[in-house]
Amino acid sequence: MNRTFLSLSPLASPTTTEPKELFPKLTLYTNGASPWGHRVQITLKELKLPYERVHVAMSKPREEWYLKLNSRGQIPTLKISREGITNQTKKDIILTESAVICQFLADAFPQPTFYPASSSPSGPLIRAQTACLLEVMNTRIQPPLTAAFKAPPEEKEAATKHFIAVLKAEIEPLLEDCNPFFAGSKTVTLAEALFAPFVSRMSMYTRDGKYDHFHVCWLEEVVRECPRFKAWEETICAAESVRETWDEEDMAMYLKGKNL
To answer: Radius of gyration of the chain from Cα atoms?
Structure first.
């Protein structure tokens, strides 16, 4: 599969004599239970980028070989092998932070329906809306989500209802134009790639009574209080790129402390 890798310094030199139709080798270090790694897998799938996946254990300290790639030991890490891409240096490029990796890939291998360029007519607005959704996710959604997930049984109902209230206040307004994907898109966008791992896990935690991470009030109240979010959740979970990169078995094993 030939794809043009954007000639953006320092990845490639505009004056290089190397053929432009060379494709860098992408290696993703991740774990099937990691929502952060799942973000990158969805992005790679949507952009139709080939890559090698290397498993990194989450239930034990990171091994020395991984810490040499990512000194903080976080998951995921993306390695871009520069062999054949530039004649200036052969040093691999290492990227960390899932959202940064996803946006880099979306910009380096552009697909307008997934993440429009800033120079396109709709680009600045959609990029700003996506950034806003990510900021809300990081600062407003993640804390109460984690609190509800970890709340003891006697506090589970209150924590779940608080999380639903935050979803209603912070996320519902941002989903007004979904049709069915973010900002009126007919296909998966970067916004879904960034949010889907958490939505798919919430769906897992509240399905069939197998897990008790949220109070049972979630099932009725989220439909009543957050209809846009519920519709978006169903759309996201049905998306091919989400389903094919979502390893629920790995997640179940991790929750049982068996994911190695």
So the answer is: 20
